[in-house]
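Provenance and format

Records in this collection were gathered into a single text stream. Each protein contributes a sequence line and a token line. The two records reproduced below are adjacent in the stream.
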Amino acid sequence: MSYERYSCPNENCKMHGQVGAGNIGHRCWYGKNKERELLRCKICKKTFSAERDTAFHHSKLSKEKFCQILECLCQKAGVRGTARIVGVGTNTVLRVIRIAAAHFEAVSRIMIRDINVTEVQMDEFWSFIKKKEKNASEDEIEQGEAGDRYTYVSMDAASRLIISIATGRRIQETADTMLQALKLCLSCAYVTCLTLILFTSDAWDQYYVGLKKIFGFWHRPRRRRRTGRRRNFRQYIPWNLLYATVEKIKDGAGKVTRVIRTVVHGSSDLVEQVIQDSSVSSTINTAFVERINATFRAFCSRLVRKSCSFSKKSSYHDAHIKIVTAFYNFVHPHRTLTESNGRNTSPAMEAGLTNHCWSLMELCSFPVSRASCQ
């Protein structure tokens, strides 16, 4: 067993929080059947469980049953249905959702970092909490207890990797949260204006406003004349960040009759250059991220339309979305990628983050140091 992902939990140790320092080793096996491993720091001699920084820490469930609950939740089973299949209580299923969501989010934050992308597609899809917005009161909508709930998604078109998500109301703050998480995941080459990157979305203006706010910078233009008042600061987007929109015009029956593609920021020549170099796109599009809408509704029971599995609390809705996102990125073999590569391939594999499709057991067992997440 490799101990490179573990770090010393002792805050007084000089190696505290340092992953891959070589100071963690095996101590002994413990438990009723000697199935749990005890580790020890070679510097401060602190001992701790190998499950300390995993999703299994302080869980009385067996690892197999813990993963079986997650498998059911990622295959469109509801909370009560999962409880009946696995033979546990509904409160146990809800507790697994809370624990797994926090762990999977931390794993994604560590693994999806400094990635190289050239085409990012953005979109949002709808769900609701407790009741639809037209039936909810203003207080319930304001407090997030009921009404519409949107999930904002950014995706790498080439690898189909979901880079960042954000859940909330369909307002600018939710889009900004998704874009801020996206910026933290990108390689520094994009921030330092060394590589072209094309952002595409629908014509919803929140994305362009968020791009200027998150990726832009403030600059005061030079005076046009020697005298007079200085010009005000203006917000600009770096030249290498290109942005284009896809607007679909529909008729009364909901059929798309026309598609309008517009280059909002950057030159058309640079956008055309990115499209020509792309291995998946032949024109400006949002086809890959729009497919996520159907994929998530096939995985998550809370998103299924006209069913009784809709979320009653926003916290469990958001947690379930995080679980399905990690399942999609690391565990589930993507059909198109699998057919093109000739073997089971997940989006994380295509992006070069892993070398095989993880199992839920591997995802839950991946140690996440608390210090490395700060």
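Adjacent record:
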Amino acid sequence: MFTFRIFLSSPSDCEVERAIVHEITSHLNIDPLVSSFARVEIVAWDWGAGVPLEALATPQESVNRHLALPEDCEVFIGIFQCKIGTALPTNAFRKNDGKPFLSGSEYEFHRAWNARRRGASRPAIYIYRKKMSENPCPDSVQYEELQHFFEQQPFKNGNQWTGSLNYYDAADFSSTLDGHLRILLSQYQPGKLQPFEIWLKHQATILSADAGPRYTGDAHIENGIGEVFDWLLVRKTAIAALDKTLSNVWETIYRDAAFADDQKNMQRIDGRMRNDVCWHDTPDFSFIIETLQCIESKAWREHIAHEKAEEHANRSHRLKRAAINARDAADLLKRYAEIAS
């Protein structure tokens, strides 16, 4: 039996609509046709006994720990009226650009949307927003933040509104959602899914059209955007790899007085990278490489002098590691700098 999971997300002013989603789910699970091939399951913090909220964690961390994540469900349903919700703590949750999430609902939506932007086929994302009369919302700050949320992509692209569905009242929401879920469920009926070979060919066609000739059978054709694709494809790996190698360098020098100037430079590099965790601006590779080369040279000099003086072996070993780690990090930077520049 196939489990069709619906991730339900909304602020606190959508209790009626949340109850409707639960009610529709119950009806679908006793529908003879639907129940013959699937069971619909709601993923929501208030479903059943609710999520156990741990004393040493934020509510959102408890939700993440005890429920399926949005990207692991077949459908993401977001519902909004007047509120966006309560902002999440920035020490635990931040957007890719470093900005805070306005609420758990915004955070959950971004998880679902990011999965789709990375190429995942699920979840299907449906956002329902109640069509309000003029000035209906008592909390103007919440309403302005909700407006700001819907002013951004994917809901607004230039002057074009996309990505959300309006409803007028509870009855309208109920009939609309019921129809949408039945259409989605029908795609999972036995015999409805495409054979894997046909699906794979279709996905290859889409990829070829979207990626351009550089990443298809016509790879001998170069185009101006090819280097940009290269950088975008390796950037996430580069960030993780560089963070690890720089950490290895720091661990070997941060308590050694001989590297006082280098420690300041490493702290400057760390601050710059922590303020732009996704490298929206290309890092100053030249400065980082120069710093690492200075550390390598100094570490070897200190290592040789240390061995001649026959001082404590632990520092000698640490200096050797510092030199090797700095060289490895510089080599890594040179490879990525060629792609990013």
